[in-house]
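[Automated response] Your request has been received and processed.

Submitted sequence:
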Amino acid sequence: MTHFDLLLRGGLVIDGTAAPDAARHADVGVLDGRLTLLPPGAPAAARETEDLTGLVLAPGFIDVHTHSDGVTLIDGELGGDMVRAAVLQGVTTEICGNCGSSLFPALPGRLAAMRAETRVYFGGDVGMYEGFAEFAAAHAAVPRANHLTSLVGHGTLRAGVIGPVDRAATPGELDTMCALLDRALSAGAAGLSTGLIYTPGTYASTDEVVALAAVAAAHGKPYVTHLRDEMSRVEEALEEAVEIGRRSGAPLHVSHHKTAGKYAWGLTRRTLPKLAALRAEGMDVTCDVYPYTAGSTALGAMLPPWASDGGIAALTARLTDSGQRDLMRRAIAEGVPGWENTVGNGGWDRISIACAPRHPETEGHTIAELAAARGQDPVDMVAELLVAEQGEVTIISHSMIEDDVRRVLAAPYSMIGSDGVPKPGGRPHPRWAGTFPRVLGHYVRELGLLSLETAVHKMTGMAAARFGLAGRGVIRDGAHADLVVFDPGTVADGATFVDPLVPPSGIHSVIVAGRTVVRDGAETGARPGAVLST
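Generated structure:
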């Protein structure tokens, strides 16, 4: 008789593949962190046996788009509810370093300066690391419940080599960025990411990104991009991404694909057929999506790119200058060539404060409301808050429509990413705690937009294949024992914009590296997670 550490009996196994028999009844044994599939009721014994009758057993969910790089490292503690939120919704692997921002690599002489800049995005002292190995070692020193891997941020490369300045890279600087990227990818980083609406990434030319993406291509790893514009110029920005993919040879992955802002609503009717046609022609292109009509980012990104030329200190100096604020107002009203201009595409009434650590009374209120209450122009109000918070303010932007979200979710090449920004405190976007149960509950069970097998594939096998996570995202003999058990009849998100960290319902167990980290919807305290190399 076969003996296991854990035996899971009686569940409906949805194996994470897109195969016709992706859903079938089977028993699953776990031994030394690996899986064995057994016929239902097959003779076997284990130290622990669970009856999964009426439940689904799936590969652990892979969140392909997070900004959780440093949440476990902030002030040397585990980050409380923020850390728990991901694993409680069934996420066994997080892919961070997205949108051009990673915590490595950094040249030794630039570590201190870059450390100060990262506080704006991560909301705490998370440090900077010379390479992927040092980043992994920092996480290994603070045990975690689930796994993590990271892309290499183009913005981080640029800030480390050139600084937060608006100019082209010299040939020597580009060579240095390429060498740093090559080293990080060789050490196990998962690919290259860009955030072309964010400084300093927005200062880069297409040619600069092509040169870096070619390094990713040489490693067989993807170019992952937050497009230069997801609003009125989204089609033009997508063309740039396609050009970068073609010229570099790198697989292309479009982050959190959306057509946001009132001038872009409905444009998924054009962007998605474009992506489908490219795939039919043989191009390796995919995307991810979160199941919400609101996004979240830094408040400073609402200002024109030139305002941040020189970094946070330069930005705050400009914000105290009334003449500079007048120029910012004009830029928002009239637009700037090549700039996304979220406010101009929507309005201050669609942007609310998510986190302002020194001014919690502003959280949950829109910029328009706060400005009106103070009798101020919105730009002046934003300037005062950014200066007082030293740039550390995140926002939620209600900028999309449901029809576009549904179209991207239904696309056969889209996978699921939360785009969670787990900064301590405030009112973060509920996607960090609710993304995966929301897809399973609302879009699968309630709306029937996706089959259960398709949704699980988007969350598991498709994601693992895209990011080189060998042996993960599938339930098969010998695969890594990262699993989630859920009730398909009750699984649902609980997080809201008012109460954003409410755990989901219907997630029964989460298993990472063969150890149960969530049982009956509560953490067990086990910390088997690791930083994965690809």
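Summary generated for your ticket: The mean pLDDT is 94. The longest helix spans residues 171-187.
If you did not submit this request, please reply to this message.
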